[in-house]
Amino acid sequence: MRALSLIETRVLGTLYEKQHTVPDTYPLTLNALVSGANQKTSRSPVIEATETEVRAALDSLKSANLVIETSGGRVSRYSHNVERVLQVPSQSAAILTVLMLRGPQTAGERAPARLARKPLGSPAQRCATDRGRCQARERREEGQSR
């Protein structure tokens, strides 16, 4: 498989991301795909792709079987075929998508996502993962019990 251009990578990553974040509007129209590719948040680098550039990227991705065009209604819609073509599980495709959209990640950039996970069940488990807040809570509780 050949290397993808920046715009092809962005289009493919946008298709995968939007499938999971806005499933009601997936597959995407060309206009939605241009908007998603040019999104200012959670993108590195931020780009200003034109409709013509996105259409060319879609044509190239379709020739590699990474994108599928479906017609129905008034406009064409596009969906990805990443997991089948690359033969990777959905978890790996999700990681690839983050890299496609946001570029290489450092440990500091990954930390907020790690901290945003659902907290562990018991207070003792939460204390084990977030020592600073637990120590402050313990001090408050000790002060109230006196």
CATH architecture of the largest domain: Orthogonal Bundle
The count of β-strands is: 3
Largest sheet: 3 strands, antiparallel
Query: Strand sequence of the main sheet, in spatial order?
Result: 1-3-2
**In angstroms, what separates the terminal alpha carbons?**
69 Å
The amount of helix comes to 55-70%
Oligomer class: single chain
Order of helices and strands: HEHHEEHHHHH
Number of spatially distinct domains: 2
What does the overall shape look like?
A: globular
Full CATH superfamily name of the largest domain: Winged helix-like DNA-binding domain superfamily/Winged helix DNA-binding domain
% residues in beta strands: 5-15%
Give me the secondary-structure category. mainly alpha
**Poorly predicted parts:** 111-131
Identify the CATH class of the largest domain. Answer: Mainly Alpha
Overall mean pLDDT stands at 83
SS field, number of helical segments: 8
Return the CATH topology of the largest domain: Arc Repressor Mutant, subunit A
Q: Return Rg in Å.
A: 21 Å
